[in-house]
Write a structure and sequence with these properties.
44% of the residues lie in helices and 16% in strands. The protein is α/β, with parallel strands linked by helices. The radius of gyration is 17 Å and the shape is globular.
Length: 247
């Protein structure tokens, strides 16, 4: 069924972003997908069946110009933007002393600037419309660090996004804009697709359930957030219970 709602998804070409894009397209929503290159977006569009309501907009999401173009093209094509999914992100797991300058800058660019600039555009646009949803994909590890995974940069960036979600929800509450986050634990995506059995078994130890999730688990949480009319300022961990305590 065709819908008049429009969603922007960053990091839309693979993994969680691709799954979220497909879910909204299946609902008949218009989706504006962002990834760094047009080639990746065109490959994703082909997998989706080249739907007419999917608009690819390539560019580095760390740049304010990319965020501006995303909203300009979305509004020109579909009239307005109802939902922003800040999904683009990178995860570099290593001890703090081993991070290179380039890795630190990459995490800041993609995870922090890639949230700030699109959210600025969304806040201005959605506040005028008195409605809208901003949902950011963060990480449950930032809510409860683990001795099994050294990842201070992820904790710093994603933990900041968890707090920013609550702050922005308060800031925009009077404008009718809802702001939430979904904090995945270990989710099987192409990132882990070629992992050997030993690695996969280790990943299962990162939750007390002894399981890993899949992208549909995150899709379900995102759809809940954007369907809700009374949920805002929530960071929802989807992690098999990893943030419930120690085990």
């Amino acid at each position: 069924m065709k819908s008049n709602k429009t969603v922007i998804v960053t990091g839309a070409s693979s993994g969680i972003g691709f799954a979220v894009t497909k879910a909204y397209l299946d609902r008949g929503y218009n989706v504006v997908g962002n990834a760094r290159t047009l080639d990746r977006l065109e490959a994703a569009a082909a997998k989706l069946g080249n739907p007419t309501n999917f608009l690819p907009v390539p560019g580095d999401i760390a740049l304010p110009a990319t965020a501006a173009v995303l909203f300009e093209k979305a509004i020109a094509a579909f009239g307005k933007v109802d939902i922003l999914i800040n999904n683009a992100g990178i995860f570099v797991a290593k001890p703090l002393a081993e991070y290179s300058e380039g890795e630190i800058e990459a995490v800041i660019d993609t995870n922090i600037k890639g949230f700030l600039y699109p959210s600025q555009q969304a806040a201005a646009h959605m506040a005028k419309n008195k409605s809208g949803h901003i949902v950011t994909i963060t990480a449950s590890l930032a809510m409860q660090p683990s001795a099994k995974v050294s990842s201070i940069m992820a904790i710093l960036a994603k933990g900041g996004l968890n707090s920013a979600t609550r702050g922005l929800a308060i800031e925009l509450a009077g404008s009718g804009v809802q702001v939430n986050a979904v904090a995945p634990g270990i989710i099987l995506t192409p990132l882990h697709g070629n992992a050997d059995e030993g690695t996969r078994n280790f990943l299962k130890t990162l939750s007390p359930s002894g399981k890993v999730g899949d992208t549909q688990d995150i899709v379900d949480a995102v759809l809940y957030m954007t369907d809700s009319k009374f949920t805002s300022g929530t960071v929802l961990p989807i992690d098999g219970g990893a943030t419930a305590g120690s085990w």
